[in-house]
């Protein structure tokens, strides 16, 4: 169970790291227990963000078009 929880948290951290580069994402809640931590303006139709969860971002995929780069060593 501990391993599963750790894996889930790692996945959420990686997703959050990618989503923060999305041009529609104006803020991400630092609270790890926040169920809808992403403040997104894409679906609000204005500069006032709506709150979405990471699953919504994965479905949307807009963050993939926002200059996301991975560094290789
Ligand atoms: S829902 Fe889509 S547009 Fe909004 S922050 Fe997530 S990836 Fe970006």
Explain what the structure shows.
With 73 residues, this protein is of the alpha+beta class. 34% of the residues lie in helices and 14% in strands. It has one domain. It contains two helices and three strands; from the N terminus they run αβββα. The protein has a three-stranded antiparallel sheet. The relative contact order is 0.18. The site of iron/sulfur cluster (SF4) has 13 residues, from β2 and α2. Iron/sulfur cluster binds next to β2 and α2.
Range of strand content? 5-15%
Number of domains: 1
This entry's quaternary arrangement is single chain
Query: Which structural class do the helices and strands define?
Result: alpha+beta
Q: What's the shape?
A: globular
Strand and helix map with partners:
Blueprint: H1 2-19, E1 25-28, E2 38-40, E3 50-52, H2 54-60
The protein binds iron/sulfur cluster.
Brief synopsis:
With 73 residues, the protein is of the alpha+beta class. It is built from 2 helices and 3 strands, in the order αβββα.
Any key phrases for this structure?
globular, 14% strand, 73 residues, single chain, binds iron/sulfur cluster, 34% helix, 3-stranded antiparallel β-sheet, alpha+beta
